[in-house]
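Protocol step 4 of 5: obtain the predicted structure for the target chain.
Materials: sequence only (see below). No template structures provided, no constraints applied. The aim of this step is simply to have a reference model before the mutagenesis design in step 5. Sequence pasted as it appears in the construct record:
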Amino acid sequence: MSLTAAGVYRHASGHHPANVVAAVAAATRHHTDTKASASAAAGAIAAATGAAVVALIVDRGPLVVRCDGHDLRPLSPEASAALQGDPARTRVVDVPVTSMRGPVSLMVVGPLEGDLHGAAETLGLALDLAATRQEAARAERLAALKSDFAAVVGHEIRSPLASIIGALQTVEKLGTADQKTLELVRGASARADRLRTLVEDLLMTARIDGRGVPVRPRLLCVVDMSREVAGPAGIPVTSTGRVPSVKTDGDHVRRILTNLIENAATHAAGSPVEVSVRELDDGVEITIADHGPGLPPEVASDPFSGSHDSSTGLGLGLKIAAGLAEAVGGTLGHRPTRGGGASFLLTLPLEI
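Step 4 output (structure tokens):
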């Protein structure tokens, strides 16, 4: 990241703090961008060293000059004049910065007091910290924009899609179409249903990213819920011990189990899929295990990111499952199945 500002300050007589490093650290402690951090540090060094001029030089040129409380344009005649001083009274030290391009130097002109090298090191740390904070803030803004965009697009698609599905269903129910037309209508209806599922996934992902998932707790028998979801696919559900009911959001748990079981059935390569439920000290654990090829290495390292190629079938479904698990106070983990395959472990607390 390139620094966008530096400071040059005239010395104010009578201010000579002994500890320059402490002055720089205190001046830059709470700044969240490089411009403010650099300006504050330059001012602190000017006051602490008693220097006539303090400048931060990036790639052999001052970026911004402040003289007598005024900002001067970089490399202007006034800025150049401000940096002209007695060479015998000028010191230049390197500033160790990893977040900026090009060499960075601290130049002090005038009476010199205090630890200038220590000040340069502290300044470098402050600039790197400010750059990290800037990147974090930028990432948060981008995530918020992504979430807002997904929500808007999802809502805009949902209404016309519902009309399309309704029209296709009406044509199918009328029974007036010939067999060829009816096959086309059924195919279009199936694809529209698939698109509706993708839109709902998109909207749920936006809610999860924005921490806007509503939770409606009610008493739930986890074993019954697991059998209700797994039964239509012919997947057996076993339970260990006396599994207690939990107070949670049943709709969210159903969606988590549906995503995980459908994912296991799809990628098990014809091998058995098993669901087991057991009691924990402070909740219950549901395991969905398959004996297929397992997750690819690039997916297994972070299966819940939602950033994997949708052609693998391991994209938004797992991210939604993990986000809903967190929303109900639980966790969702992954481990290889003994003998080959993938196992997902959902834990739920006794009560949200």
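Step 4 remarks: The longest strand covers residues 273-280. The radius of gyration is 31 Å.
Proceed to step 5.
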